[in-house]
């Protein structure tokens, strides 16, 4: 099944097909593209691993150079389906022999995409909503664990630079300009949104329990949420020329 998407993208004609279906590879080959940019994944659900594997089946079958958006979670020492699926995808892409680049975003954030209604709210948009509307913001654990968020525009600029420079079978971590504790991240976001939220720390077991009632959150991910995720962007900058902005300089876009 395939049909034109209603998603409005400047200068791009969307073509939508079901990557769960093997025939999709032939339909994509007929588009006569130059590169496959693989951004898709399913984060949770019992079928997530199978669907992720099927998507990579199609990507490899198309046989073009690939820019693959993975995740810095591949570095975490955790046995979580999402991280395992990303590790498997990376290994399959390397073994395929196709020209490729793997770009691993760390906590990507940015403005909402107009004319797009996602099935679940992105994590940073949820956090921005909490900071802008509530006097108290709940944070899992002690909030001392760190993230190094990258703005989606910086991530896209890096990806475009890799494509234009030729995909040279490399893997790069895509972190932002600074690493922040979750507590400082919320405070920085509050300042950008003109708010001064109070932070309340949720014990791990409470957070995991509540996550079981939120369909857009994988409880397994919540259980390891307090893991440090710091991604040095030095190698990415050397390869692409993109110097990622600090979170304080990009957080205001979460209010757009």
CATH architecture: 3-Layer(aba) Sandwich
Report the order of strands and helices: EEHEHEHEHEEHEEHEHHHH
Largest β sheet strand count, sense and barrel closure: 4 strands, parallel
Biggest sheet: strands side by side, in what order? Answer: 3-4-5-8
The helix fraction, in percent, is 25-40%
Poorly predicted sequence stretches spanning 5 or more consecutive residues: 1-5
In total, the number of domains comes to 1
- In percent terms, what proportion of residues is strand? 5-15%
CATH class: Alpha Beta
What is the CA-based Rg, rounded?
19 Å
Oligomer: single chain
Q: Please state the average pLDDT score.
A: 86
CATH fold naming: Rossmann fold
How many separate helices?
10
**Spatial gap, N to C terminus:** 34 Å
Helix/strand structural class:
alpha/beta
Q: Globular, elongated, flat, extended or rod-shaped: what is the shape?
A: globular
CATH superfamily: NAD(P)-binding Rossmann-like Domain
Number-wise, the strands total 10
In brief:
The protein is an alpha/beta fold and 256 residues long. The chain has one domain: Rossmann fold (3-Layer(aba) Sandwich). It is built from 10 helices and 10 strands.
Q: If you had to describe this structure to a student in words, what would you say it looks like?
A:
- The structure is a single chain.
- By secondary structure, this protein is an alpha/beta fold.
- The protein has one domain (2-255): Rossmann fold, CATH 3.40.50.720.
- 38% of the residues lie in helices and 14% in strands.
- The chain has ten helices and ten strands.
- It has helices spanning 24-29, 48-62, 81-96, 123-133, 152-165, 182-192, 204-211, 219-223, 234-240, 247-250, and strands spanning 2-3, 16-17, 36-38, 66-69, 100-105, 136-140, 146-147, 170-174, 180-181, 198-202.
- The protein has a four-stranded parallel beta sheet with strand order 3-4-5-8, with helices on both faces. Strands 1-2 form a two-stranded antiparallel ribbon.
- α5 crosses α9.
- The radius of gyration is 19 Å and the shape is globular.
- It starts with a strand and ends in a 6-residue tail after the last helix.
- Residues 1-5 have low confidence and may be disordered.
């Amino acid at each position: 099944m395939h049909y034109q998407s209603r998603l409005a993208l400047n200068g791009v004609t969307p073509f939508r097909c079901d990557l769960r279906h093997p025939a999709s590879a032939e339909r994509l080959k007929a588009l006569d593209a130059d590169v496959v940019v693989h951004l898709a994944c399913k984060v949770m659900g019992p079928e997530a691993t199978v669907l992720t594997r099927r998507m990579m089946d199609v990507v490899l079958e198309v046989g073009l150079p690939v820019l693959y958006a993975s995740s810095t979670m591949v570095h975490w020492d955790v046995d979580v389906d999402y991280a395992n699926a990303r590790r498997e995808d990376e290994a399959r892409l390397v073994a395929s022999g196709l020209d490729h680049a793997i770009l691993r975003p760390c906590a990507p954030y940015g403005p909402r995409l107009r004319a797009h209604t996602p099935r679940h709210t992105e994590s940073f948009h949820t956090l921005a909503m909490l900071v802008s509307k509530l006097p108290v913001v709940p944070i899992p654990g002690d909030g001392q664990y760190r993230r190094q968020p990258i703005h989606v525009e910086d991530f896209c600029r890096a990806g475009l630079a890799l494509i234009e420079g030729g995909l040279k079978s490399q893997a790069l971590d895509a972190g932002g300009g600074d690493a922040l504790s979750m507590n400082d991240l919320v405070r920085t976001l509050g300042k950008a949104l003109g708010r001064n939220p109070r932070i309340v720390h949720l014990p791990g077991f409470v957070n995991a329990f509540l996550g079981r009632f939120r369909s857009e959150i994988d409880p397994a991910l919540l259980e390891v949420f307090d893991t440090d995720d710091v991604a040095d962007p030095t190698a990415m900058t050397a390869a692409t020329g993109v110097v990622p902005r600090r979170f304080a300089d990009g957080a205001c876009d979460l209010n757009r």
